[in-house]
Structure formats: structure tokens, C-alpha cells
Amino acid sequence: MAAHRCGPLKQQNKAHKGGRHRGRGSVQRDGKGRIELKILCKKVRKELSRVDQRHRANQLRKQKKEAVLAEKRQLGSKDGPPHQVLVVALHNRISLPEAFRLLQDRDMGTVHLNEWGSTYSFMLLCPRLKHRWFFTSAKRGDLHSVLDMAKVADTILFLLDPLEGWDSTGDYCLSCLFAQGLPTYTLAVQGVSGLPLKKQIDARKKLSKAVEKRFPDDRLLLLDTQQEAAMLLRQLANQKRRHLAFRDRRAYLFTHAADFVPSEENNLMGTLKISGYVRGQTLNVNSLLHIVGHGDFQMKQIDAPMDPFPLNPKVTKSQKDSGMAMEICASDVVSHMEEDLKVLMKADPDRQESLQTEVIPDPMEGEQTWPTEEELSEAKNYLKEGSKVVKKVPKGTSSYQAEWILDEGGESSDEGDEYEHDFMEEDSQDEKSEEEEECETMTVGESVRDDLYDEKVDEEAEEKMLEKYKQERLEEMFPDEMDTPRDVAARIRFQKYRGLKSFRTSPWDPKENLPRDYARIFQFQNFTNTRKSIFKEIEEKEAEGAEVGWYVTLHVSEVPFSVVEYFRKGAPLIAFSLLPHEQKMSVLNMVVSRNPGNTEPVKAKEELIFHCGFRRFRASPLFSQHTAADKHKLQRFLTADAALVVTVYAPITFPPASVLLFKQKSNGMHSLVATGHLLSVDPDRMVIKRVVLSGHPFKIFTKMAVVRYMFFNREDVLWFKPVELRTKWGRRGHIKEPLGTHGHMKCSFDGKLKSQDTVLMNLYKRVFPKWTYDPYVPEPVPWAKSEISSTVPELDME
Hints:
About 25% of the residues lie in helices and about 25% in strands. The chain is of the alpha+beta class. The strands form four sheets. It has a seven-stranded mixed beta sheet, sandwiched between helices. It has a six-stranded antiparallel barrel with strand order 8-10-17-12-11-18. Mean pLDDT is about 80; it is low at about 315-340, about 405-450 and about 785-798.
């Protein structure tokens, strides 16, 4: 009897895998030579008993609670900075002087009116509540001042109208503040007592319901009497604190006093002395200082004068009347400031941060050898041989004469065009004569309003805007499509472009063909790790310098005189300390979304105004898709349906940081275009521009087709032959060979083409932003209610 033999289709079972459940012997063999762990690992941590776990959780909860309470008690106390409150009126019927009169309660404490800026700013010292406030406000319509003061304010007090809540200007202000990031805020209603008693309760209910869209679960307070103002102050002192991430890791200062000492060489440059309370983190004199809207500077020294607004001022009794007490006012403190001046720190030149923002490129680095004369002559001969055209000419014709011989078709077409042009001119003249016979003349009264309206219209701006709208519509209908030029060869016009088998998976070296501007910027080897190490050092290491809550005077060197003029006009002067590397230029990527209230087309590489964290600057950005791939397609316009990534040259800023994009109009106003956040600092992020060339099938066979109008000469067809083709209906193909000399080509596809289909060729090129960074932003024209496009309509309280 023959033995059984397995056939070729024998079943092959998988070998057994031990996995995690191994025997003791294999564990001992794998563990030979290993050393026991000296730190507490996750496995040991999990083996804590339930009682210990509960006890540990209670300890952590208690520590966090104590830290929050300590932070709340320090703000506004005698050892901490004053509680800075920014008062924002959201309606034109709100009276700021009346609100400030109610808050300046002499029974609550001492009031100090400051003289440096706006009339609506004062310091309130309340020993009974052991708290001190600094109330300030910006001029209505001054967008930069509102945003800058909101960056350093501890609390924002919004004043609402009892009937409408906020108008279009207030809504525009709220949109900008929400996008930048709101600190702690409080809502107060002014003017409820002026309404009839029957309408007061109804108005408050309607206002609460309407305010829920912007401020859900927030309580509305009243501000019409001294008692309501006292309740508001207690609410401001005791409410929960909200943090802004971009300012918690940096020291910042709101300027209360400023002085300018000109240098000996130039009166327009000198040393700026700014005084204020340190907030956020400890301020080191060796770090750089950024004055918002003016640039980065170095500090010489930090002084510690007497606090001009102490919570418990010294009391001196006069000899005449022992019962009367006299408080030391801020003016007396200033007069004795020189006597009590104390120098905290002086800058160390060896440890001080440098102001270098760019790398000085070496023009000889990476040089290449220039081709020899023999190589150049060979290249010319090769081009001449490739450009030869075969023509039928009479016998005895020289090569020079052959160049002047034209094709018969060209002559006939020119004659036909001339004939057609003459014929159309005759028709137009006949039509004009007929219209003149039919029409009559009559007098019509002129409209004065139309003439006045036309005087305000800028025709040139209207033409530019119309052209932008047309380009945006074409881009939506035919994305990235471009007509092949007829006056320039396609191989020359698109010589910097390349074809890709797959946009997602095809390789592209990020270091290839970089522009000269990339030699000027700084790049991190690992940006994420650098950011983590800097933030960890801030949390763990104790920094030297002025502590939070101290009143200090900073000596800032090499400051232009225009900064002091800006402060003396009443504008706020705000300074932020910079983290390491934040003065250096690099490529910033920001994720933004289009503001619904702005519908004007915004083209790539158009100058925009950026508010990125604590910085404010102008730049010309690129727009690209926000994807997880290594290549990102360029968007020619800022779209409204999806979030895009904005790429610009700008100083390094460590995220998180909010981003606001504004566009300056012809009348000087700034219109909010988009809002978002900072994504990364990465020069290697590739933005790829796509160009789509289109052709039309002329003759269609089974899987073959003759395509025309994509190219207009034979050499271009041969040049782009390796690039893959696709159609709008999903077919794939490639060029087989050119036909004739007018750009017709034979193409093969993976299926039969439809006559109404369009053949497309995708070409790609990496693009880079323009170096147009400018840290100086012109002051905007104050908003007018009629010129602001509101994102949310005004509240209907009727």
C-alpha cells in the first residue's frame, strides 16, 4: 500500500507565538545583565493601596487650591501689583465719565487721578477691603489701544446698554477681543434706573437672553448707584481668575510714568526710563524687552523706587493738630524718589541677550563652478540642432531665404481676418446710423445726490476690487487652471515646475533650491523640544531680577524719541520680556479661519497687519491647506469654508499665541480679516503651488485620443511627455507622441474618453513668502459705526 504524500496545496499553519505569557526560563535568559530600576516606574506607582491613592489625590487637590487662593490674594494686595481693570463701553450711549464717577467712591478708599494719559484713568486704594485697583480705558474706536491694554489687563469690565446691549462698533470690538483671548471679565449694565419701572424687569430679561449668545452663564450687574458700584468692586476682587497662556510665561509691564534722556551723539535716540509694576514672571535685566508696536530693545539697569500708590500709606501727624492726619500723596513720593532710589540690577554684557535678528549670509558658501566656453558652445549647437524645422522650398533656395518663406495657411488666415474686420466695421456703422434715426433728444434734470456720491467713489480702487472678485470666482470655478501662453514656449514659462506621480506620496527634498532669504533666518533642530526645555526652565529655575508686584524703573537703551511722543499723546506703552531666541527671524506658520463679517477677496502675498501674541507687525503671507501631509497646496485666496495655514517671515514666537489678521482699507481703517492661533516655527514646511494645463480631445478612439490646445508647438509636447495626464472625469493617461508642429499629441488612457471631457496636466513648484516684515504699524483711523460690518446683528429688544 502506497504511503500518503502531501500535495502542493498543503495547509501551512502559523507558528505559535508566546507573546507576553512566557516561561520563567525565557524571562531569565532575556533579563541577563540587566540592572534594576532606581526610579519609581508606572508599574510600582499603580501598586499603591487605595488609601494611599486617596490620600495622595487629596494632597494634590489641596496644593492646587492653596496655589489658586494665594494667586487671588496676591493680586491687588500690598505685596502684589494693583488689580488692573480695563473698562470697555460697548454702546455709544454708555457714559464713561459717569461710570468712573461711581467707581471713584471716596468712602471706599483713596483715589489718585493719574496725569500721564487719558482723563479716564485712576488708582483706587481700599484699605478696608485690603485691595487696590487701577481703572483705565481707551478712546472709543481706538482698536490698537483696546487690544494692547487687554493683553495686560487682569479684568475687563464690559459696560452694556439696557436696551440694545451693544452696537455694531461694540460687536466688532468683542469679535477682536474674543479672538485675541479674554482674561477675567465682568458684565455691567448702565442706565437701567433711567427706564420706567414697568420696563426695567422686562428689559433685563430680554438683555440676559440676548447676551447668552456671547456670554453664556454670566451674571449681569448694575452700575447706577454707589451701592451697586461697591458690589461691583467686591465682585471684581473675588471672582475666579482666567489666564492668557502667552503672557503667563513672560514678564510684562504697563507703563505708569516715562522719561527720555537723549544720547550725546543724536537727540532722536536715547535712554527711555519707564516705570510700572512687574507682572507675570520675574524680570531679568539681561533679557530683551519688546515694546508693543515699537520693536525689541536691551535694558541697562533696573531701579526700585518707592511705590507711589501704597495700600497703607505712612501717616504723619502735624504739630498743630494731633488729631488730623495727612497722607503722603503720589506727588510727594515722586519728589522724594531720588532719595530712596535703589539699583536692583545692572546688565552684564557677557550674559545679556543679543539684538541680532538675522544671520549674515556668506555669498561664497556653497559656490559652484562656472561652465567653460566649450560646454557653452556645445549647448548652443545642441539647441540649434533640436530647433531645426523641415520645409518645402524651391531648388536653389539658401537657408537664409528659407527663413522668410511663410506657410500658405498663415497668409490666407491673415487675409481672412482683414476681410472679416472690415466687414464688422461696416456693420457697426450701419447700426449706429439706424440708432441715430430712431433716437430722440430730450432734456433730463440732473441729480445732485448722484454727483456727490460719485465724488466719493475711487474709480481706480473699484476697478482693482472688481478684478479681484473676477479672479476669485475663476479660482472657485477652475481651481489652479491656467491658459498656456502662446507668445512664450511652455517649457520656458514652466521651467521651474515639475510633475509628480502622487502629490501625497512622491518625495520632495525640503532643502532643495532654497531662496537667498533662507540664509538670513534661524532654524531649530527640534522646535518642540526647544520649546519644552525653555518652558520647563521657567517653571523650575528661580530667575534673578525684579519680582512680581515690585514697582520698578527700567532703563531701556537705544530707543527712538517717537516712543515717548506716542506715550505723551495718551496711548498706552506696554513692554514684554522676550524668551530666549524670540528676537530672531524665522518662518512662522499660523492656522486661521476667515472672519464671517468680511467678504472682500484677500489674495496671497497681499500685505496684512498681524497681531500675533504680544507682537504687532506687517507682512505679506502665503496661504496653504491645513493638512497632515509633508506637502501643502498653495491657496491663491483666503477661503471662507475651511481653515488655512498662513506662512510669513517674522520673529520667533513660542506658542500658544493668538493671531489676528487685519487689512488696511483705503480710508485708513483696519478691517478684521481672519482669526486663529500660532501653529509652529518651521522653515521646512513645504508650500507647493499647482498649475493645471488643460487640453481638449480632438479625435477619440478606443483608449487613444488626439488632444489639442494644451501646447502649441512640438518641442513643448516632447518636453512634458514624461508627465502623467488626468481628466476631469477620472481617467489617467500619458503622452504617446506629438502630431505635427502645432501642439497636437496622441495620448493613451486607461479607458475610453468622453467627448465632453477635459484633459489636464498637473505641474508643481515650491513657493516661499516675501520678505516684507515691518514691525511699525500705522495707527488706524477710529471706527465709524456706519463703516463696520458687524458679524452679529444688533440686539432687537423691541
